[in-house]
Amino acid sequence: MAAREVKSMSIRPILPILLAVLIGAAGTASHAQSPARNQVLGTWRLISAQIDPEGRNLPAYGERPNGLLTFTPDMHFVIVLTDASTPKFASNVRGEGTDAENRAAMARSIGFFGTYTVDENGEFSGNRVEGSTFPNWIGSVRTRNELTFTVRGDRMTESFRRPEGTRIVVEWQRVN
After folding, report:
1. What three-state secondary structure class fits 47?
2. Nearest C-alpha neighbor of 159 from the set 129, 124, 133, 131
3. 26-59, pLDDT tens digit by residue?
């Protein structure tokens, strides 16, 4: 027991110093600048999607656009955009649509997913498509030079140009 008493006696004077160091380090860490909040994080509902808004101003997904965009905390995204007025197929079997039905469905909708990045200010800075209903997009990478998301409160504006140069502007409303 004498050895235990000696050990505990030699540790006791160090405990207040150790606690002061730990409290000081925790206080310093709490004053350190935390990373900016990810501005696009969450689920967004499509409000409108316009082709060439400064010119022809055509609806990109019909008169009744429908869609959701979700940005997850682990830096993944998924988006589905549809035209709610797309006619139903005659058959209830997905693989049995006619050429005209399949063409209309493909032309009036898109779904894709992948990963995204934000910068030090929490602003969208780019994405990489991992899967898409339009296979040509798989593997594509877009930076804010090609695609921007601007968040103002619970509204977000997406802007990009198609390969031929046509500008598209999409408006989103935060769901959560």
Report:
1. strand
2. 124
3. 444 444 556 689 999 999 999 999 998 888 888 8
DSSP H stretches of helix in the chain: 2-11, 14-31, 99-107
What b-and-e string marks burial along 29-63, b requiring 16 or more CB atoms within 10 Å of the CB? eeeeeeeeebbbbbebebeebbbeeeeeeeebbbe
Q: Is the model's pLDDT at 9 over the cut of 80?
A: no
pTM of the entire structure? Answer: 0.77
Report how far residue 137's alpha carbon sits from residue 131's, in angstroms, rounded to the nearest whole number.
Answer: 8
How many C-beta atoms surround the C-beta of residue 170 within 10 A?
A: 23
3-state SS, 7-40, equals: HHHHHCCHHHHHHHHHHHHHHHHHHCCCCCCCCC
Q: Which token pair is 45?
A: 């509902």
* Count of Cβ atoms closer than 10 Å to residue 81 Cβ: 20
Neighbours of 144 (CB within 10 A): 15
**Residue 137 contacts residue 155 (beta carbons within 8 Å):** no
Which of 162, 94, 154 has its CA nearest to residue 134?
A: 162
CA distance 169 to 52: 8
